[in-house]
Amino acid sequence: xxxxxxxxxxxxxxxxxxxxxxxxxxxxxxxxxxxxxxxxxxxxxxxxxxxxxxxxxxxxxxxxxxxxxxxxxxxxxxxxxxxxxxxxxxxxxxxxxxxxxxxxxxxxxxxxxxxxxxxxxxxxxxxxxxxxxxxxxxxxxxxxxxxxxxxxxxxxxxxxxxxxxxxxxxxxxxxxxxxxxxxxxxxxxxxxxxxxxxxxxxxxxxxxxxxxxxxxxxxxxxxxxxxxxxxxxxxxxxxxxxxxxxxxxxxxxxxxxxxxxxxxxxxxxx
Length: 270
What we know:
The chain has helices at about 10-30, 35-55, 65-95, 100-125, 130-140, 150-175, 180-205, 215-245, 250-265. It is mainly α. It has one domain (about 10-260): Alpha solenoid (CHAD domain).
């Protein structure tokens, strides 16, 4: 029997993009683990956006509207994800035997998280509206001019992402504000996702890479560690904001001090 020819780079990337749309749809349909579903849906949307950016030039006409739709979906889910992450971060900082002050704060944050989820599901039962929008986007994405995407297109996009990460790193090193650190983290995370997609595409197509700057796994692992470290710092800052919003300054004062000590451990990032 004749062997089936491996897919082209364009076909592989197109398949990955549609797959991410479907992954987000399945995550939002998870009725048993709603919070995890929201988190996984947002991750799938981020991976999809990073992948599409690899073909920014051939998709220039359609990409802005697609990115707007994906951004709106992610933004709409952000309050749910943020509230849930605040609960988990609080539990991590509090440790296995939370003090009464921490337990009270965790209970309050958990109540807020469940309330936001219930309100969102009341407006969009079963997240059906969002899932339909993702289904429609999958059709739009599948119809993009993928045949125009080749190795040079992708590797030029990776080089641009590298430059953006380096620029954000430089800015964050000079002025380590939350905004600059967050920008650095977003760009590092996007590059990591793009590299992951590119490695998978090359493996699927049976091709080797001409792109040497970050093709080895050690460098990709370093980017992943950087993104995780910056993410942990961002989660601590978000927890601090959430605790302050409880409007119980005396009760949360020792908790805020503990968070301050945790943040000190992250000062050497970058």
